[in-house]
Write a structure and sequence with these properties.
This is DNA-binding transcriptional LysR family regulator. Belongs to the LysR transcriptional regulatory family. NodD regulates the expression of the nodABCFE genes which encode other nodulation proteins. NodD is also a negative regulator of its own expression. Binds flavonoids as inducers. Residues 1-59 form the HTH lysR-type domain. By secondary structure, this protein is an alpha/beta fold. It has 3 domains: 3-86, Arc Repressor Mutant, subunit A (Orthogonal Bundle); 90-154 and 266-299, Periplasmic binding protein-like II (D-Maltodextrin-Binding Protein, domain 2, 3-Layer(aba) Sandwich), CATH 3.40.190.10; 164-261, D-Maltodextrin-Binding Protein, domain 2 (3-Layer(aba) Sandwich). It has helices at 3-16, 19-26, 30-44, 60-87, 101-118, 170-174, 224-232, 246-251, 280-293; strands spanning 49-51, 56-58, 93-99, 122-128, 142-146, 154-162, 164-168, 191-193, 201-206, 209-214, 219-221, 238-241, 255-257, 266-273. Helix 2 (19-26) packs across helix 3 and helix 5 packs across helix 9 (280-293). The radius of gyration is 23 Å and the shape is elongated. The chain starts with a helix and ends in an 8-residue tail after the last helix.
């Protein structure tokens, strides 16, 4: 292992907080990462991390060493990226891209395809799901996120926004009581996406006033496609993100309800780990994704 790889390994250990997590991020075996740390500590002559039962934490010396290592790695990456730009060398390597399932399927997958068409030496692993991955510990290079990331280690580009919309099918609305205000919701059957932990309640906002409605869902499921299918077939009302039901609303299969009470828009963002922001392929894909996503009418609200 050369010295730059050794520094990158140590920085990954500090950022992730575990040898196994660092190995996963770096696509190396845990024993190799353990050996690299041991060799580095032996060479500098002091302990760089404290080992606990749950995670690793840097010592004072390790924290200072990691900060300087990041500076060196960022400097090296900047020099290399400028050389690539100057010489026009092709991008190469593997990128791990993450996106929500439906948004990824409809909008990120085409972006991935167009990027691969331009850069034949690049390989991409596209990971789709509703769980918000820890980009650093999971080794994700670029993610498209719906919502506000809370990790200060991430570099964020806002590309637009979507809204939380309440919807129902025309057939359901014809046979149910009118829905004019959030307080009418308890009179209705609710289809609820339970993929995230949290209370079964809906929050609405109108003229600065918050309305919270507790629910007893008729149907709960962890699968978004099942929620959309159920509400489209007339099983009840559901709150979903606007991009998830854009086609159904446009075709008249679903009706948007209580638009005056919708909460504030939810940001759509391209996110990369700060330690990866100068890598040429990462930066190129992030630029391509941000430019492509900004053209989507569904997030220019």
């Amino acid at each position: 292992m050369d010295r730059l790889d050794e520094l990158a390994t140590f920085v990954a250990i500090v950022e992730v907080g575990s040898l196994v997590g660092a190995a996963k991020q770096l696509k190396r075996s845990p024993p190799a990462v353990t050996r690299a740390l041991a060799a580095l500590e032996e060479r500098v002559g002091r302990r760089l991390v404290e080992r606990t039962t749950r995670r690793l934490a840097p010592t004072d010396a390790g924290r200072h060493f990691a900060e300087r290592a990041r500076e060196l790695l960022n400097g090296y990456s900047t020099v290399m990226s400028r050389l690539v730009e100057t010489e026009g060398a092709p991008l190469h390597g593997i990128l791990r891209i993450a996106a929500p399932t439906i948004f990824g399927r409809r909008h990120v997958a085409p972006i991935v395809s167009s990027f691969l068409d331009v850069h034949p030496a690049i390989r991409i692993e596209l990971i789709m799901g509703e769980r918000s991955l820890d980009l650093i510990s999971e080794g994700i290079d670029v993610a498209v996120r719906i919502g506000q990331p809370r990790d200060s280690r991430l570099v964020v580009r806002s590309v637009g926004s979507v809204r939380r919309v309440l919807v129902a099918s025309p057939s359901y609305l014809r046979r149910q009581p009118e829905l004019r205000h959030p307080r009418d919701i308890p009179k209705h059957d609710v289809v609820f996406f339970s993929g995230f932990a949290g209370p079964t309640e809906l929050r609405f906002q109108n003229r600065g006033r918050l309305h919270t409605v507790r629910m007893m869902p008729r149907l709960m499921t962890t699968d978004l496609d099942t929620v959309i299918a159920a509400v489209t077939s007339g099983q009840g009302i559901a709150r979903l993100l606007s991009y998830q039901v854009e086609a159904e609303i446009s075709s008249g299969k679903l009706v948007r309800l209580l638009p005056a009470y919708e909460p504030p828009a939810v940001p759509v963002q391209v996110v990369i780990p700060g330690s990866r922001r100068t890598a040429p392929a990462v930066r190129a894909f992030a630029d391509h994704a941000a430019a492509s996503l900004r053209t989507l009418s569904i997030i220019r609200q």
